[in-house]
Specification:
Protein-Tyrosine Phosphatase, Chain A, Udp-n-acetylmuramoylalanyl-d-glutamate--2,6- Diaminopimelate Ligase, Chain: A, domain 1, UDP-N-acetylmuramoyl-L-alanine:D-glutamate ligase, alpha/beta, nine-stranded mixed beta sheet
């Protein structure tokens, strides 16, 4: 029987083959292929295929598939990947910022990346590689030329953030907010607080620094309860390290901000982001840029340079309407702020199109009913609800459809014109299918 390779030995191979792949459809020349297992597949069976496609080595955990000297046997391929990433992280002598939260973490991460990139060679998590596989892949993608890294951490159960912290070992951290997301896995809002708070716990134990929105009493209490010592505040209050306020919303946010100790100077940051809920995300990026000694000009340029994508807070102007596309994901908290923002937008004719929210468990019906009630308080020419959960609450005060395709047919018959339209729902609702009729 072969002896499994140690992490230290595997790291020496990694240093010569820095590209990591877990999907045989995406093999790059001379990469390392990790044969991970899923509920319905065992990638050990694809090891030879990966090598034929150009992989330098295949890391496997089933000796039956070791049919080549390019197959490296480990006890568990996933654990090997995770431990390799943690080992690599220990070699990096750079600041690592960990970021999590119920809403806005990806937008905030991208804003921070855009700001820091004005001065530093900055790495940030790509896409949604923020789980027990994505974080290791992100860490192993950090090159020797990097000055600073931002690692996004997602979770839907307790202890996930704690585990991801053990891999990424952040010296700095930010929780955007704590809301009603992944209630099913966390077991309610208190469970979400405990889960997200694991980042604060890690930083408290390691004497790390927390960037915190002091306008959010939940975050302040969470930080205090975990006895975090190093706290850098941002918010509306003048006592913060960075303070600011909303200057303009038409439709993109313009923020005026100040630095503690330089209260005589007011700086203006223009963005390409709609939504009052993005105010705190922008201010977080300004705070972190200021903390890492970027100039005010560099910070403002970084904010202005960020263009939202992936259907997060995007403004899309069609031939007939202005669309607020925010359907990458949805939960009750993000629904509420999106609706509040639409209410604040100065537009004469508004249309609301909402899709079901997923992963709410036993709270699902109650939370969907709460959103319907909120929508009924907003003035809009049409109110359209899509999905089984919303459909179960149907009445004559709005339009309710079981599926996106049914809604699309209805909209096609009587398309709105001259309207500002909010599209918000969970990714699985595929609300993008409606755009051709809007």
């Amino acid at each position: 029987m072969s002896i499994p390779m140690t992490t230290k030995e595997l790291y020496q191979i990694y240093l010569k083959h820095r590209n990591i792949c877990t999907d045989t459809r995406k093999i790059s020349e001379s990469c390392l292929f990790f044969a991970l297992k899923g509920e319905n597949f065992d990638a050990n069976a694809f090891a030879s295929k990966a090598i034929e496609a150009g992989a330098a080595f295949a890391i496997i955990d089933d000796e039956r598939y070791a049919d080549s000297d390019k197959c490296i046997l480990v006890e568990d391929a996933l654990v090997a990947l995770q431990e390799l990433s943690a080992f690599h992280r220990k070699q990096l002598k750079i600041p690592v910022i960990g970021i999590t939260g119920s809403n806005g973490k990806t937008t905030t991460k991208e804003l921070i990346r855009s700001v820091l990139s004005q001065h530093c060679r900055t790495f940030a998590t790509e896409g949604n590689l923020n789980n027990h596989i994505g974080v290791p892949l992100s860490l192993l993608a950090i090159g020797d030329d990097c000055d600073i890294a931002i690692i996004e951490m997602g979770a839907n159960h307790q202890k996930e953030i704690a585990f991801l912290c053990s891999l990424a070992q952040p010296g700095y951290g930010l929780i955007t907010n704590v809301g009603k997301a992944h209630l099913e896995g966390f077991g309610g809002v208190e469970g979400v607080k405990m889960g997200k708070g694991e980042l604060y716990e890690y930083l408290a134990k390691t004497n790390g620094t927390v960037f915190i929105n002091t306008d959010n009493p939940t975050l302040v209490d969470m930080s205090r309860d975990r006895e975090v010592i190093k706290v850098v505040g941002y918010g509306k209050g003048a006592t913060n390290f960075v303070s600011g306020g909303l200057k303009e919303l038409s439709p993109f946010l313009t923020i005026e901000w100040q630095l503690k100790g330089r209260e005589d100077a007011v700086f203006i940051a223009e963005s390409n982001l709609p939504g009052t809920y993005n105010f705190e995300n922008i201010l977080a990026a300004i705070c972190i840029g200021s903390f890492f000694k970027l100039s005010t000009e560099q910070i403002n340029q970084g904010i202005k340079a960020y263009q939202p994508k992936n259907n997060r807070s995007q403004i899309l102007k069609t031939e007939n309407n202005t669309l607020i596309c925010d359907y990458y994901n949805a939960n009750p908290s993000s629904m509420v702020v999106a609706l509040d923002n639409l209410h604040a937008v100065p537009a004469e004719n508004k249309v609301i199109i909402l899709g079901d929210m997923f992963e709410l468990g036993l709270d699902s019906s109650l939370e969907h009913r709460s959103i319907v009630e909120k929508v009924m308080e907003i003035t809009a020419s049409r109110k359209i609800f899509i999905g089984e959960e919303f459909y179960n609450l149907k009445d004559k005060s709005a339009e309710f459809y079981r599926t996106t395709s049914e809604a699309s047919l209805a909209i096609q018959k009587t398309p709105p014109t001259g309207s500002t339209i909010l599209l918000k729902g969970s990714r699985g609702m595929k609300l993008e299918d409606l755009i051709s009729n809007l």
